[in-house]
Amino acid sequence: MKKILYNSRKLTFANFALPLRTLRLIAFLLASTAAFAQQSISLEKAIELAKSNNIDLKIADKEIEKQTVLKKAAFQPDPLQVQYQGGQFNSVDFDHNVSVQQFFPLGNITKANRQLQEELAKLAEKRKALSSYEIEKAVTLAYYQYLYGVSIQKLNSELNEIYTKFLKNAELRFKTGESGNIEVISAKAKVKEIETQKAQLEYDLAIYQKQLQFFIQTNENIVPDQNTALQYVFVQNQENSKAENLMTEFYQQQISVYQKEVGTFKALRTPKVGLGYFAQTINTESLFQGFTAGLQIPLFGGVNTTKAKAAEIGVSQSQLALDKNKMILNLQREELQNNFRKQQKNLDYYQNEGLQYANQIIETAQKSYANGDMSYWSYISFLNQAIDIKKQYAEATHSYNQSAIELQFPTIKNN
């Protein structure tokens, strides 16, 4: 099962071999057309589409189908034996003998085969559930990565509006002789810088869109609904429970498969019964008939005994792996919870205080500078402080979302 890699700040494609240069080329080619060919969808719809389109899940469905079909092969009689004999085996005359013989398994071998195949089909279903879980996590991370890009774009537009007003005020003050040309030049440089950043952000957003589209696996230009709240809605008291259940069910099913293998190998040590029919000539006179019956006794059944013991060891291995990964999952949960609380506390500050301070600083500084009550350098200093707070708020929200999603979908180990 493929593993999708993430870091704490930004979704990556380490296991898909898509370098950043390639993604930027894709973004450059599509940036001019993406705006009028996009379909806006909710997170729930994006996850639904990903699960219906994803090739890995379709492969998993075929594996379930294959294992289900193989249940019909539970009854495994030996090939029909047909033999012809001709020659002088009765007298000097040339006689003929035709015989047919079929051996059938005895005991519980057919039942054991069927039960083993049923457990293998269930194991394929558990593997699909793990893949579906990882896809849901990947889509959610990519979805909010795009929304983060949108929030940065909005901040850039807000900054552009602020500095455009500043430029007008600077030009007016220069015309009236209240300030020097340095203010106008500085304001123009800042507006140009913001416009350049806007173009770069458009490329970044196109990359984020391709990341989301990659996980949904569609040719349509899917984008998140921009009316979605930027902050991810974390469901309290449900973190880790789904992951632990999926992991536990997978290993328990693996144990069931090994247990059924033990029964199958033990059943292979039982004899097989054979029934036959023959017809022959004697002294060229025909037709003489008869029936045969026999047993195939596995005198050297040590191979199946050894395989049964190996399957029993597999049961112990799966139980140990389950215990180990439960411990890893619990430790991971504690680490993710601590990080989530840290990011939540940081976000609370900006939502309750920091953002209000930034807006007040901008509003007050603009009025004071327009009225001539504040120097150019003081105005720039306060403006940069407010802008920095807004940037930190966007980053805090993004970090919170990443930590919340990771806590909602902790990584499952299944090896």
TrEMBL record:
Single GO term (MF): porin activity
Keywords of the record: Cell outer membrane, Coiled coil, Membrane, Signal, Transmembrane, Transmembrane beta strand, Transport
GO CC terms: cell outer membrane; efflux pump complex
The species this protein was found in: Flavobacterium crocinum
A Pfam family it matches: OEP
InterPro entries for the chain: OMP_efflux, TolC-like
Coiled coil segments of this chain: 106-136, 184-211, 326-353
Keyword Coiled coil attributed: yes
Family listed: Belongs to the outer membrane factor (OMF) (TC 1.B.17) family.
Matches recorded under SUPFAM superfamilies: Outer membrane efflux proteins (OEP)
DNA-binding among keywords: no
Cellular location(s): Cell outer membrane
Protein name: TolC family protein
Residues annotated as signal peptide: 1-37
Gene3D superfamilies linked: Outer membrane efflux proteins (OEP)
